[in-house]
Amino acid sequence: MGKKLSKKMLIKIATLIVVILIMVGATILVFPWINELKTTEGREALKLYIESKKTVGTFIFIGLQAFQVLLPIVPPIQIIGGALFGTLWGSIFSYIGLYLGMSIVYGLVRIVGYPIVEAFVGEKDLKKFNFLKDPDKVALVFFIIYLIPGMPKDTISFFAPLTDMNKKTYFLYVIPARFPLLFLSAVFGSAISNGNYTLAVILSIVMIDIGIIGIIFRDKVINHFEKKGKTKKLSLKKREIKHNRNMKKTGLILLCSSLVLAVCDLLFMTTEYFSSCRSEFIQYHNLKGMYQKVYFASNYGFYWLLSIAAIGITAFLISLKKIKNHKQNAE
Fold it and tell me: What is the biggest distance separating any 2 CA atoms in the chain, rounded to whole angstroms?
């Protein structure tokens, strides 16, 4: 039994080494291209290449989307998908790539086991997601985390194969929770490509704001599920107090910084330079010139700053109430 176990362990270790070497090699090869995708010129070059190659380009796009799951440093490729293929096909191709990437992660973790999770996920996150072992709520937890922007989706994907969640449930009912955000990203990319800047701005404000809300409240969501698990109440309570204090600071920073920037933006809108920018944007209605870009950023950025201020004051008030409740309970 001991020999069989050691042989099995050696196979797992060897597989893990091979997987890591492949991932390191792939990262080294793709990294210069990924860096180019972070620039406007790089994205335009990719767009032209895919448009010229069509079928091959589609597979390249799907591959990049799959690679994003394995390596989250890849920029949001689904936005480029919307610009290249339109809303419908951009969403479909993004989802195929995402599904492929998550299937690869699932298969690798199933074959190698816990060591590959340790290789790709930090020790902090390993401890944070211990509560996912509860089979009664694991599918619901994954669904909610995948659905809400700003949540650690790619990190948590490495945990899915280690849980008691049914494989069919995961692939048929849980992964599709990631589609709505992919769709919104594709709509945004398509709107920018077609010059529909008003729709693009509205979508970007919505997506960024939801993402900020997700980042601010994600620990609260995770803590909510931990409460129902077997986590020690004392350590959980300490984490909640710390999180509420951090949320209070974050809310205050968001509120103050966004209001200061909004006032500065309003003052800038009274200048002659802004009037010139506005006239040129109305005349050409594109973002090719510097004047058009300045008007676009200043005019629509003002509304975004107000929405950030609203998020900041909401987070501040919620955290203040929670801190007050904790103090009352302690007394």
Answer: 83
